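*** Backbone structure tokens ***
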Amino acid sequence: MNMTAVQLCKTCRKPKANYPCGICVEHVCKSCAHFMGEDSFSFLKKVPADLKHQTYCSQCYDEKVATPYAEYNAIMEKAKEVIVFTKDRAKLTGHLKRKEDPVMVEDCEDEDETLMRLAFFAAQEDFNCILDVKITNRKIIVGSHKKTIFSGTAIPITIDPSKVREY
């Protein structure tokens, strides 16, 4: 006789806990599990091991995921406010000092993602502006499938937003 063990939820102790926590590997039910998308931390250069999973129990989520996820989202919001000056607007920004090392991204799906990743890296280091933004693309052809990959560079700086003039 083949008897399968019924998994009990770590949190509510109800049966049918079909989701193992990515950190502690205890099973949780659908209503108690915290689900994260594959791209929840996709803009980080290196995603910590504890943040790479898609399912968490409440305890592991609260202890190891909630704070980094809130910080990540705060940086993402700051990145949306980063002021962008492209390379062709160098006359407007010629007087600004470029002391920091450039930030770079590679292998992005489109120009918007490339620009957002550059802004994210700048915001992550507490900068509010990126200068000399240069986005390049290259075509990759595999058989009959064609794809364009984007890369970009920018120099992060901090400026006073009230003194920025649009021309």
Summary: The beta strands are 19-20, 27-28, 34-35, 55-56, 83-86, 103-108, 129-142, 145-157. Helices lie at 58-80, 90-93, 111-124. The first strand starts at residue 19 and ends at 20. Residues 19-78 form one domain.
